[in-house]
Protein: Glutathione transport system permease protein GsiC
Amino acid sequence: MFTYTIRRLVLAIPVLLLISLIIFALLKFAPGDPMAQVPMTVPPEVKAKMRAALGADQPLIVQYLLWLKQFFIIEPLHILGTMTGYDLVGNAQRVISWQTRSPVADIIAQRMPQTLTVVGMSYVVGVLIALPIGIVSAYKQYSWFDQIGTFVSMIGFSVPTFFTGVMLILIFSVYLGWFPSIYDTTLVVDSWPHFWLQVRQMVMPVAVLALYNAAQISRFMRASMLDNLQQDYVRTARAKGMTEQVVVLKHVLRNSLIPVVTVIALGVPQIFGGAIITEQVFKVNGLGALLINAIYADDLPMVQTLTFIFAILIVIFNLIADVLYGILDPRIRYD
Structure:
């Protein structure tokens, strides 16, 4: 397993370099100018100096190599220096946002807690709801529980999140007044009243995303359980006198989780990417809103960095899913 993991990590390097090159090339050919947000009263020679300071006057290959150096060397050293209290980068040029003229990494670090709080919590809640629903629905196929679970899952997966979000706002904010319709990102949780206010403003966005995630994962869980319940090893286990609880939870569930792990693992990068539509509906100032605003403002360094971070997360969680296969299924051996 260790050898396989190291080999996959080594193979991930050229894959990520190719992805970074494609992202860089696509965004460089897209319309956008680092001086677009600069007032027209600024003299051309000043704009030229500002463009040179950002490295935008260099050939494309130089800009690409500079961005790789900034992303993989300068920014990690800056983060390490911030944690240790030492200046490890000096005056080295960092990845600068064209829109705010601030380091991209600092802006992402400011937005990350909001996204992890709302989207991360919704994903955890969705998984915790989906797995037992899928298991019970498969074990009691065509029962009333299965019918209700299938109906709710179809609604959660079919209805777009922006519609669900608006409906919850109309019902629970406008008519009932139970929860705030706008997420207050400036709220500081330093007391119990503020803590409950934080919980109240998280309820609706978390519920919208949890319903969508649970609908998808529960369908995969149900289908995988149904497939394994018909296998010969299940009948053999029952013939040996094993209890139904042992058969379902130890044998069937373990094998059924293998395809579901892929769905769950590949969904984790979406947490860091943020739920773009839901964040817009509830005004959550997270990474999803940051990406949308950067696209509108032609902020190519921000879009480029966020997109590449999402690509790295997808590669990493693909590897995690493959490793979990070997843990769940003893028949799978990598070494």
